[in-house]
Design goal:
The complex is a heterodimer. By secondary structure, chain A is of the alpha/beta class. Chain A contains 19 helices and 20 strands. The radius of gyration of chain A is 25 Å and the shape is globular. Classes of the chains: A alpha/beta, B mainly alpha.
């Protein structure tokens, strides 16, 4: 039995620097990995799952984080006791790792071919063999025109292509273990499905052991042999994937699985109002690259003839892959970007035609909540200042603005004391609540939510969605909900528009579009949603059961 | 062709900038107090009206302004920068005579600053928080805060007056009549103090810049990727951290390079170095306008030239620039 184990983590405890909110990042962690199996480690941010991966790889950050006790045995040899040089020869050759952020995981000033070749160089592959192996690796991870691609710089590649390059590096020397730390979280659904397929294919053909870290139970259902669920640095449940998914024993696991968004079965009751709040007609946005003396002018159609209405109390979903133009549409609506053509009719005024100064009184009526709760609040302003800035700018007196701010803070589930604190003192979910309070402070008629819950953990995501649903009812808000996650769109939206390359390929009532997609692109998006074959009925809520 | 295109664009823009400088130069002469003819007459020592009128005609000062501008423009394009009556020599000759000395001094100072600064910045960043880092930071702060001329004077006190190791002024030993390598060695010997002094301030700047930039890059995702690949530490520092950390350093080096010709006035004065800075300084005191304007023109052209070189260096260092421009 012992000899069969590829990796065994025994009683691992990793201490955090003393300033942290808990003493240990990981506490008394034990698990095994067998050859040829995929072990998924699931948990929310701060659960210690990434820290565990870093420890196995010997990549713990310098500042104060260190292994307190325990062993990490790789084929019977303790990685923690190993000399730096010996560990180095294992890292990258016998244990490979891929990371969450493909956009930043590659050196921006080095050609991708050279970056892959470095792995071969570091582990003593003769120079003459390297270029050929780089090309066959690029080929193996499914990248087109390897020879040309090897000479490109990372910024020329899409997120999915970069992740393939990172995978090529990790697999260059056919490692026995692959550690994948949320490798698909930053990618859209179709790319995610392709990358998962790639990892699974290579894993099968090479018989590697894979540790796959994720927060998405859909992904777990698709690829895992076994699952370990982590909370506060401990494993709360571990077992075969089917068992954990279908009969979760632990209460925390159950709550996580319940929070996984599912396709809605029944349509939402339609909004009673007939008159739309906004009427968008033939919206166009074309980006033109600056031509030089010798370069032709290049045009890129980000939006091509988009039309839709949103009524009071109604939520319209805008779904599509990255680059489909869905964010551009949201930004045009708020006039953060000026559209090239078309009209945005609000109360008999065409907002698309107004100048900046004419637009000012209308700014408060259409508000936006952004994806990144970390970047969308000014770090040097208190939360109160951020929320009150809008009302004050629209001529509301300080006392009323302050009262409104206090009311909204409580409404979004924070307390009044939050007003005097700074954004960095809050968690991602709390920051997103602040962002929503900020948008509501000017009493808008239309709220644009641009991937507003995409960066959040599932349980937090469910809470923020609940909040959005409540305020929609309470304020009878019209909402444009932009997302790449069809399950979330189906939860919240009355109607959806499916965007592909700047055009609406399909639109209609949400459940009927997702149940009977007429367009092949919509169908491919639905097929790519992770965990579709996983039937389950937690909590007995029939409206949220999977219909796949 | 693709690689050359931005450079051609820059060259065209630069020519426009230099043309503007020439026009400004011309207007500056007009703004200078007094009639040029009166000034020339003053230099010649005689000043009756007939002589001044003759001078005006001789130098075209009676023509309309735009014609004068055209003449001036044509002169500058032919590299005729005028004549210094005070020094009894063509301005071009004067400048060409001094330019090599200044370039020798400032380029040496530049290399010292960049080389030493980056080296200390890297060392400091790699040992952050330890004694080496603290000592280097202290040293950098000290030279950053100390005026250049004072450092020069103190260096002369120490190395020339007390220790007697290095000569305190001039570019070569007067009347020694060295030639070939002996002369080069003599000049190098004279160069150490001024180049060191000039470099020290910038050493401090580069040290701080490199250190901060290295520390920022050190924790980036791609450095972790490099570690995960099993690369040796030295390679990670060189290829991944330093290459990315150099980008802001290059930006600053470009700014400093622009000042290579004009930025050494203080050092040249303290060490009696026969360069452009001294020439301009003396011309200013003596109101020798042709020389001053000539220096102005040459330094402006140098700034433009070094900016183009910096742009090209940046393009090589950071492939993303090409797209942004």
């Amino acid at each position: 039995m012992m000899s069969q184990r590829l990796l065994s983590v025994e009683n691992l405890t990793i201490a955090l620097p003393s300033a942290g909110d808990r003493v240990n990042a990981v506490e008394g962690l034990s698990f095994n990995l067998n050859p040829g199996e995929i072990l998924c480690i699931v948990g929310e941010s701060g659960s210690g799952k990434s820290m565990t991966a870093s420890a196995i790889m010997g990549l713990l950050p310098d500042a104060g984080v260190k292994v307190q006790s325990g062993r990490i045995l790789f084929r019977g040899e303790d990685l923690l006791q190993m000399s730096d040089e010996r560990f180095r020869t294992i890292r990258g050759s016998r244990i490979g790792m891929i990371f969450q952020e493909p956009m930043t995981a590659l050196n921006p000033v080095m050609q991708v071919g050279d970056q892959i070749e470095e792995v071969l160089e570091a582990h003593g592959i003769p120079k003459a063999d390297r270029p050929g192996r780089v090309l066959s690796l690029l080929n193996a991870v499914g990248l087109p025109e390897p020879a040309a691609l090897a000479r490109r710089y990372p910024f020329r590649l899409s997120g999915g292509q970069r992740q393939r390059v990172v995978i090529a590096m990790a697999l260059a020397l056919e490692p026995e273990i692959l550690i994948a730390d949320e490798p698909t979280t930053a990618l859209d659904v179709t790319t995610q499905a392709q990358i998962l397929e790639l990892i699974r294919g290579i894993q099968r053909s090479q018989g590697m052991g894979v540790i796959f870290i994720t927060h998405d139970f859909g992904v777990v259902a698709d690829i895992a042999d076994r699952v370990a669920v982590m909370q506060h640095g401990r494993i709360v449940e571990i077992g075969p994937a089917r068992e954990v998914l279908d009969q979760p024993a632990d209460a925390y696991t159950q709550s996580l699985i319940r929070a996984v968004p599912q396709f809605r079965e029944k349509p939402l009751p339609p909004s009673p109002e007939a008159e739309p709040v906004v009427r968008v007609r033939g919206l166009n946005k074309t980006y033109v690259t600056q031509g030089g003396f010798f370069t032709p002018v290049r045009e890129f159609k980000a939006l091509d003839d988009i039309s839709f209405d949103i009524r009071r109390g109604e939520t319209v979903g805008l779904v599509g892959e990255s680059g489909s133009g869905k964010s551009t549409a949201g930004r045009c609506l708020v006039r953060l970007i000026d559209p090239n053509g078309g009209s945005i009719e609000y109360k008999n005024t065409d907002l698309a035609k107004l100048s900046r100064s004419q637009l000012r009184p209308f700014r408060s009526k259409i508000q936006i909540v952004f994806q990144d709760p970390y970047a969308s609040l000014n770090p040097r302003h208190t939360v109160g200042q951020s929320i009150m800035a809008g009302p004050l700018a629209h001529g509301i007196d300080a006392k009323t603005a302050r009262e409104r701010m206090n009311r909204l803070l409580i409404r979004v589930g924070l307390d009044e004391a939050a007003a005097d604190r700074f954004p960095h003192e809050f968690s991602g979910g709390q920051r997103q609540r602040i962002g929503i309070a900020r948008a509501l402070a000017v009493e808008p008629d239309l709220l644009v939510a641009d991937e507003a819950v995409s960066a959040l953990d599932v349980s937090v995501q469910a809470q923020v969605l609940e909040l959005l649903r409540d305020i929609r009812e309470e304020f009878q808000l019209a909402m444009l909900f932009i997302t790449h996650d069809l399950r979330i769109a189906s939860q919240l939206c009355h109607r959806v528009l499916v965007l592909h390359k700047g055009r609406v390929v399909e639109s209609g009532e949400t459940t009927s579009v997702f149940r009977n997609p007429r367009d092949s692109y919509t169908r491919s998006l639905i097929d790519a949603v992770p965990g579709r074959e996983w039937h389950h009925s937690p909590g007995g809520d029939s409206t949220t059961r999977s219909f796949a | 062709m693709d690689k050359l295109r931005p450079i051609i664009g820059r060259l065209l823009k630069s020519i426009a900038i230099i043309a503007t400088i020439i026009v400004l130069n011309f207007l500056l002469i007009r703004l200078a107090p007094g009639d040029p003819a009166a000034a020339m007459a003053g230099e010649a020592g005689a000043a009756d009206e007939a002589f001044m009128a003759q001078l005006r005609e001789q130098f075209g000062l009676d023509r309309p302004l735009y014609q004068q501008l055209a003449y001036y423009f044509a002169d500058v394009v032919r590299l005729d920068l005028g004549y210094s009556y005070r020094q009894r020599e063509a301005v071009v000759e004067l400048i060409l005579d001094r330019l090599p000395a200044t370039l020798l001094l400032t380029i040496s100072g530049f290399i010292v600053a960049l080389g030493l600064g980056v080296l200390m910045g890297v060392t400091s960043a790699m040992r952050v928080g330890r004694l080496t880092d603290r000592l280097i930071s202290l040293f950098a702060l000290l030279f950053y805060a100390t005026p250049l001329f004072w450092v020069g004077l103190m260096a002369i006190m120490l190395f020339s007056v007390w220790l007697g190791w290095l000569p305190s002024f001039g570019m070569e030993s007067v009347g020694a009549g060295y030639a070939g390598w002996t002369r080069a060695a003599d000049i190098a010997h004279h160069l150490i103090l001024p180049a060191g002094t000039l470099g020290l301030f910038y050493v401090a700047v580069y040290t701080r810049l490199t250190r901060a930039s290295m520390l920022e890059v050190k924790d980036m995702d791609f450095v972790r990727t490099a570690r995960a690949k099993g690369l040796r530490h030295g390679l990670i520092v060189r290829r991944h951290i330093l290459r990315n950390a150099m980008l802001p350093v290059i930006t600053f080096a470009g700014i400093q390079a622009g000042q290579l010709v004009g930025g050494a006035v203080l050092t040249e004065t303290v060490f009696a170095w026969p360069g452009i800075g001294r020439l301009a300084f003396d011309a200013l005191l003596q109101r020798d306008y042709p020389v001053l304007l000539g220096v102005f023109f040459v330094t402006s052209v140098m700034v433009v030239v070094f900016n183009i070189i910096t742009d090209m260096a940046y393009r090589i260092a950071d492939p993303r620039i090409e797209v942004a421009s």
